[in-house]
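Our consortium's second objective concerns turning raw sequence data into structural hypotheses that experimental partners can test. To show how far this objective has progressed, the report includes one record in full. It was chosen at random from the queue rather than selected for favorable results. The single chain below, 209 residues long, was entered without modification.
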Amino acid sequence: MPVMNDEVPDEGDYDAGRNRGEFDNITPEDFIHGGSGHGNPPGWLGPADINRARHQMPIAYVEIVPVRTDDMGRISQVGSLLRVSDDGSIERTLITGRVLFHESLREAIARNVAKDLGDIALPMLPASLQPFTVAEFFPTPGLSEYYDPRQHAIALCYVVAIAGDCKPQDETLDVEWVAPKSDMMETFIDQMVNGHGRIVRQALAWAGA
């Protein structure tokens, strides 16, 4: 029977069909850049597999509040994404994505920023991996202030300064920046549904903005 890390997997386990040492040559760049030209990174699940997992177990996510900072390191602007939702409507949201198998949190943050904002966004990854809050999204409305109709997701939330240029990718249509104390900040927060606006408020309070 194939083994990995000296463990004998049970029948049906994710690693049951994998050879020992299969991840030996994997680098962080393979996760950030989607396998360095060789397809999706290890642990990527197709639509059928991820939908089955979403109905059977909580999924780990990172949720990122992108910000611009001034010369003193204070938040000068907060970013929000305009994105096409699963039902085809336009929604205002944050950078969010799941943590892949065998991927560190730093790699997950970098990959998801690049996925939404492009490779030259130049995120300044946090020195500490302690999130400013943890948001637990449920697929049942009313169980918490955070709602995701697809799944039960546990999101580690981070504030990440963006130093480069943003070129929205995939479903992201645009990224809009607003000063944290402007009237538009409240408008943007009110346009975020399912608890994402509350995450922005918590991020600003945590950062003293």
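The partners drew two points from this record. The mean pLDDT is 83. The radius of gyration is 18 Å. Both points have been shared with the crystallography group to help prioritize constructs.
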